[in-house]
Amino acid sequence: MSTKRALTDRESALPALAEAFREHGFEGATLAALSKATGLGKGSLYNFFPGGKDEMMKAVLENIDGWFADAIFSPLENVSDPAAAVTAMFDDVTAYFRSGRRVCVVGCLGLNSSGETFAVEVKDYFARWISALAHCLEVAKVPPAMAMDLAEEAISGIQGAIVLARALSDDTSFQRIVHRLQSTLLDAIGRCG
Amino acid sequence: MSTKRALTDRESALPALAEAFREHGFEGATLAALSKATGLGKGSLYNFFPGGKDEMMKAVLENIDGWFADAIFSPLENVSDPAAAVTAMFDDVTAYFRSGRRVCVVGCLGLNSSGETFAVEVKDYFARWISALAHCLEVAKVPPAMAMDLAEEAISGIQGAIVLARALSDDTSFQRIVHRLQSTLLDAIGRCG
DNA sequence: GTCTATAGATCGATAGAC
DNA sequence: GTCTATCGATCTATAGAC
Known about the structure:
The structure is a homodimer. Chain A is mainly α. Chain A is elongated and about 60 Å long. Chain A has helices spanning 9-28, 31-38, 42-48, 53-77, 82-96, 105-109, 119-139, 144-168, 171-192. Chain A is built from nine helices and no strands. The two termini of chain A are 27 Å apart. The first copy, chain A, binds a DNA duplex through helix 3.
């Protein structure tokens, strides 16, 4: 688990900011919306985030990355039981994204030009996730090249499941897709391990 | 092939509008950007689309849906050689999305609240695509339940490949993922057909 | 039909009272 | 550190000349 800084009021505003960015996107999240979501006036927001929306999003991305580092990446990187770790990852991810009702802020940022400011953070998030999952599979004796392919396919598949579940307004499609991704990984672990 | 209306100037502006919405998203695509992309003044845009941005996006969605209907959906729905049809679909999709450099306007719309206005169009697009692909697989003697699952997985997988390729700025990841999706479908056709 | 000019609203961001 | 008031810029949309 990463070291946790003392909670400032700035930190406590991040979940609400993240939810607003999630719902409206970066461009669509106006300061009025961010103010309403956090319960803070614009003045307070600018007191915590002098850099405005950009700094708010940067902080949200750090916060999300920290959560994933603790809950998802680290368990995969320091794995002892790969099958259990893969199962736990899919459980956590399904809960986190609320079966696809909640979009992935990081994935969405990469989709349009307004997110170019955060290209490095977006890239690092996915690169680390894929590499952590691939490592976990390698520990289970899956050959490195296949481990990379499977990891790439799984993370990409989760993102696609979010897009589709949102488009169809159908949680069950998310659950079916993600369940199949999980089975694919567990099968590979079973065959190679 | 669907009936093609006579080309008005309104129609000829749609590709440029689509590209602007694609790059900036619906909220991010300002009228100035749409004007620049089309080479038309605001006055002309409002002459063609009295309903403003909403009507422009509606027209873009119809245009995209028409293209997919002709190029992707119909060949799957009226299939004679399923394996060839699946291969053609992946070729066309890879070219259309430029190996993931181009995002899916329809998929992106579903991701944030600004797209709720177009929820029906978004839903219909994905529902028809999945159902057309599932039909194609059924023609190849893939059992209906499995055909639906595979179709859902493939369309979701394509969307995920776009998200990941954009996030990593890596065309090759798109190509690898989509190639695996294609192989999965062709394998099922080969096993059942 | 095309454009420019501009209205009216809202944007991000700042200033200053408390 | 909180808020309200407000700035200048930009937004969508409209009006009207040509």
